[in-house]
Amino acid sequence: MHNILKKYSLRNKLETKNCYYKGIITSILLILLLTGCSNFNSKKVKDSEKEPFISKSSFLLDTVVSIQIYDKQEQAILDGSFDIIRKYEQIFSRTDPKAEVYQLNQGTLSKIVQAFKISDELSDLLNYSMYYSDLSDGAFDISIAPLTSLWNFKESNPIRPSDETIQKVLPLVNYKYIDLDENEVSFAKDGMKIDTGAIAKGYIADRVKDYLLENGVNSAMINLGGNVLCVGDKPDGTPFNIGIQMPYADRNETIAVMQISDLSVVSSGIYERFFEIDGINYHHILNPKTGYPYESDLISVTIISPLSVDGDGLSTTAFALGLEKGMELIDSLPDTYALFITGDYQLHYSKGFKEAIKIIE
């Protein structure tokens, strides 16, 4: 792990990329916006009658997404943010036949010799995905699609695949069999596929924040199904209050509240997408090496980081590694903090967390 961290430090990677990079993984976040207004419908107001923010919500990325703009309350900017989300959904979706990832998985994209030609956007996301796959030694694996396509964690129609079916596809899950060279990608084995669900929302949130900043917005909240990214502070200079939901409790019950300024908050947890069969709880965070949900001492991991794509990748990675190794990983990364919740509902903070983030338990 030490060699991997040295080779792929976040700081070196970000300097090399020189741009603002840094599944349905349902988050365990609850936004507590202390503004006296909680209407998530799109609004148009006169300057003299401004609400604390304008907001809009929609069902995209297989979840409910919402954006609130506090300072520059222009409907066109708000609408443009949702156009960006739709654009990336048309690239990263694994289930939409028109999407680039779907076509890559089906082998119908254009080829250059044996490699598929991919867009700049998908290349960027795959670079991040390969980075976290390597950083975690495969605990996070972008090639997990053959496994995730077997399971269904929706309460209305849960599916637990047979062990025989799982064992059949396991040889197709290994990120090391993916060769990525700028805008060309190839697979060493026929039948390999990718699933960007564990990282795409974070990447998209960062792109939306870029767009808002470019259009003069300096106070906003982006919430992509629980992946929360704060743009600056609230207009009065105070931070946003982000609540972490009490595991297995009502969404209005929090276990802690954090004050967040210009940072991303992303969680991975086991209790919002799961089903029970024969007394066994099956959650959606799958182990690429076994094909079954991770057996962990953790209920959830929450990552606070400057970029949401990092929060997405690290929340899954840290959960997969468990409390001890996950904490060790987070402590080794700059400007990144984590809150781990174990099965006994104890809160475990990474090094420097309480000095950097004000929190009320």
Overall description:
Helix 3 (75-92) packs antiparallel against helix 8, helix 5 (120-135) runs parallel beside helix 9 (308-331) and helix 8 (200-214) packs across helix 9. This protein has 10 helices and 18 strands. The chain has an 8-stranded antiparallel beta sheet with strand order 2-3-8-9-12-15-16-17. Helices cover 30% and strands 24% of the residues. The chain is of the alpha+beta class and 361 residues long. A hairpin with a 2-residue loop joins strand 8 and strand 9. It has one domain: ApbE-like domains (T-fold, Roll). Residues 1-48 have low confidence and may be disordered.
Query: Kindly state the mean pLDDT as a whole number?
Result: 86
Strand order of the biggest β-sheet: 2-3-8-9-12-15-16-17
What is the CATH homologous superfamily assignment? ApbE-like domains
Topology, number of strands: 18
Oligomeric description of these chains: single chain
Query: How much is the radius of gyration in Å?
Result: 20 Å
Estimated helix fraction: 25-40%
The CATH C-level name is Alpha Beta
| Relative strand content | 15-25%
Instruction: Using the 3D structure, state the CATH architecture.
Output: Roll
Distance between the termini: 32 Å
Largest sheet: 8 strands, antiparallel
The number of helical elements comes to 10
Pairing-aware structural class of the strands and helices? alpha+beta
Shape: globular
